[in-house]
Design goal:
Shape: globular
CATH superfamily: Ribokinase
Distance between the termini: 14 Å
CATH class: Alpha Beta
Order of helices and strands: HEEEHEHEEEHHEHEEHHEEEEHHEHHE
Helix content: 25-40%
Structural class: alpha/beta
Strand content: 25-35%
Radius of gyration: 20 Å
Largest sheet: 10 strands, mixed
Number of helices: 12
CATH topology: UDP-N-acetylmuramoyl-L-alanine:D-glutamate ligase
Oligomer: single chain
Number of strands: 16
Strand order of the largest sheet: 5-4-1-8-9-10-11-12-13-16
Length: 341
Amino acid sequence: MTLDVSDPTEVVDGFRNKSILVIGDLIVDRYVHSQGRKLSREAPVPVADFISEELLLGGATNLTNNLVALGAKVKVLGVVGKDEAGRWIEEELRRKGVDVSGIVVNDRPTSLKTRFILNHRQYLRIDKEYRSDVEPHITRQFLQPLKELVGGADSVVFSDYDKGVITPELISNVVEECRVQNKKVLAQPKVRHYLDYIGVTMVKSNAREGSIATGVSMVNDTSLRNMGHNLMTRLECESLLLTRSEHGMILFEKKNITSFPAFKGPKPGFNAVGVRDCQTAVLAMSMAAGASVREAVLLAGLAAAQQADKIGTVVVDLNDLRSQASTTLELAEHIVQVPVH
């Protein structure tokens, strides 16, 4: 059975001014660019000349950046440290019109990932961060205004990078509040709290993380389907999207399994950072705009394909997405949906 979708351009037009609540790990992506000059005599490493350094929004702030680029009004819940990186995040988000009143300043260092780019390729990454769960009093701080926060949002997104902001207590409280207020909640888990996202509307992760969380190894298509069913049952979600890099994506719903091919693979040696956030932003906006889950996945796949050739931290372009949205209708004809027996 092929996929039946309505006009995706209308979905994209419905993005403007949607309010999204983002809960997650706030990260700074720092890039140090250099040009190789010679091999060092001190150690078997290249010696390079410094070209430039830049700071970019990473983790949940990259997701926020993508949502803003898609026309959303965003409020962020997260933690930054009393450091330069934390101050930079708050200033940068404010500059983009993001509501940062839900950001807690704490003694933990702000997550900082420094990538060393030599001759346009990444050679080394150094992370400065704490990965333990935040203290209970911080979670309580997030929970106090929760009713009001969920009430003011069209949808809620968890952007989990296993840096400690998202705890089981926070998840269960947010999910319950969203259930009471009939709001959709999308989760992008990593591994540590994967199985705590019980009752969310949709879970989106890569297949490898799903495999680690369930202990089901992906040997073939059957084991992939078993893993999907296992997660759907345990998480009690309406849909589950597993991304599979060059193998595309697979969407599990209660009655159907839909396989989406990769619209475009990454070029060898290129590694765009943040493609998952770009996809998640499009999914969240599509859900908020009332699109069907399959239309949302098609648009998310298209957004990821637009970024595949880029280097560095990528941000979706609303005009690009809108101008190419109609191509998803042709793509939909080649997508196969199988009913669950």
